[in-house]
Structure formats: structure tokens, C-alpha cells
Design brief:
- By secondary structure, this protein is of the alpha/beta class.
- The protein has 2 domains: 171 residues, Rossmann fold; 88 residues, Orthogonal Bundle (DNA polymerase, domain 1).
- Helices cover 45% and strands 10% of the residues.
- It has a 6-stranded parallel beta sheet.
- Helix 7 links the parallel strand 2 and strand 3.
């Protein structure tokens, strides 16, 4: 899985980098844990007889999104709530829950959202990384495939000051998201920089790091061991341009890698 991207031993020149742009979910915010809690609470309500031993499988199915509904949303093909309702009903079909019509989906979503939003917190490597990058003079920003209002609230809950790390591009900007190159290029434009002067770091190998490289930025893939999704592993092998992606296991590696290239 990891042979598809560069390790921290670099053969790429990072000396032109003047800014770092972050993905939000599972890069800044530990959304995987928050999603897990939300999905488990909704599952307990709607599939009360499901053994707790099955909960990890429920969470894995939700996160893997095998039918790609979330990516349909980011391509502008379906709405946000539609993709979530489709995934919830697929989950119920697999584990024995009832079909969610409009009324029941609204109840399911209320349970999920209440838990999800109250569980937002930053990954522990975020604060020291932002402090180190700011101290070294790098401009910072964020880019997300979700709506601006939601992600601004999420960043605030994670203790990330949007005056220092502004949300540069969201789904509201164009009506579509990553991996379209225009999304990454717009982030660079808003920083008044050329794409090659911007590093972008995200947890998705293909739509984050690989797509950033294709757009002319330097893509970093944050591959935290605790957040790996086994069902996605096959997507990371033998991808075009994979050798340009730089893989890291912690955001704290980033400031040191950039510092070495500027020393």
C-alpha cells in the first residue's frame, strides 16, 4: 500500500513552497472518530438488536462508502442529504435496519448530527504543526469538499483560528469539489501564489494528494496509522502520478521537511 507514494526521504524540491493548505476532515478534524460515534448512536436506535461486536463493521461500511455516494456529491451529481440517506439505507439493508423514508431519515439524521457535531476535535498533531508553520512564515489555508458554514464551525470547534487558517475553497465555491484541479488552483489564487508555491495535505490519497499534484501543487498524503481504512487500500496501488505524492504519518513531519529544504 505504501509503495505508491514517496516516503519522508525526499527526492523532490520543496524550496519554492510558500504556503500550506490543509484538508479539513481527517486532516485537521478527527472526523472519523466523530462519524463513528454518530453512526453507532443512530444504529443503536434503529437496529437495537444488533450486537455491539458488529459496530466496527457498521463504521467500516460507512467510512468505505463502497458505492461512492459522497464522491457523487462532490462531483455535483447529487445533494448532500441525498448521499447521506442513500448510505444510511445501504447500511440498514446490510445490517437489518428499516428503510428510511423522509420522516424516518430526518429522525436518523438528528440523532447522527447531534452526536457528530458534539464530538468534533482536532487531531493532536494539528496545533503544533500550525504553530511551527506560522513561526516559519508560511501562509496557511484550508480547502474542503463540504459546505463553508459546516466546515467553518468544525474548524472553530477544533480550535483552529480561521483568521490564521482561512477556509479558502469549499463546495459552495464552484458547486463541485476535489479532485477537480480548479479547486486546488483557486486556493493558490486566493493566496496570491502560483500552484507550485503551495503544498496541499489531505488524508485521501487520490482526491487529495494525487489530485493536488495533478493541479500543479505539491501533494502530501497524511496516512495516520490509526485512521487507515482497509477497504480503500486497493485504491492506492499503481496510480498514475503516485510517485509525486509525499506520504507522511503525522502532520508534525511537515514543518521539518520544509525547513530542511530551505536551510
Amino acid at each position: 500500500m505504501h509503495s505508491a507514494a514517496k516516503s519522508t526521504e525526499l527526492s523532490v524540491d520543496l524550496s519554492a513552497i510558500k504556503a500550506v493548505v490543509f484538508d479539513v476532515d481527517d486532516t485537521i478534524c478527527d472526523s472519523a472518530e466523530a462519524f463513528g460515534r454518530g453512526i453507532v448512536n443512530a444504529t443503536k436506535m434503529y437496529i437495537p438488536d444488533l450486537p455491539e461486536s458488529e459496530f466496527p463493521k457498521v463504521i467500516e461500511m460507512w467510512r468505505s462508502d463502497a458505492n461512492g455516494h459522497y464522491r457523487q456529491y462532490t462531483r455535483g451529481e447529487i445533494g448532500f442529504e441525498e448521499q447521506r440517506r442513500l448510505r444510511a439505507n445501504e447500511l440498514h439493508a446490510r445490517f437489518g435496519g428499516p428503510h428510511l423514508d423522509d420522516v424516518e431519515y430526518a429522525k436518523w439524521a438528528k440523532i447522527f448530527w447531534g452526536t457528530f457535531t458534539s464530538s468534533w476535535h482536532a487531531s493532536p498533531d494539528v496545533a503544533p504543526t500550525i504553530t511551527a508553520l506560522e513561526g516559519s512564515g508560511y501562509a496557511l489555508g484550508a480547502l474542503s469538499n463540504a459546505g463553508a458554514q459546516l466546515q467553518t464551525q468544525k474548524l472553530a470547534a477544533c480550535g483552529v483560528d480561521t483568521h490564521h487558517v482561512p477556509l479558502l475553497v469549499s463546495m459552495d465555491t464552484f458547486g463541485f469539489g476535489k479532485p477537480d484541479p480548479r479547486v486546488f488552483q483557486e486556493a493558490a489564487h486566493k493566496l496570491n501564489l502560483a500552484p507550485e508555491q503551495v503544498a496541499y495535505v489531505g488524508d485521501e490519497f487520490d482526491i487529495d494528494a494525487q489530485a493536488a499534484c495533478a493541479a500543479g501543487l505539491q501533494g502530501f498524503w497524511i496516512d495516520r496509522p490509526a485512521q487507515r481504512i482497509a477497504a480503500r487500500a486497493h485504491r492506492y496501488a499503481d496510480m498514475a502520478g503516485a510517485d509525486r505524492v509525499i506520504r507522511i504519518e503525522s502532520l508534525t513531519q511537515l514543518p521539518e521537511m520544509l525547513r530542511r529544504q530551505h536551510s
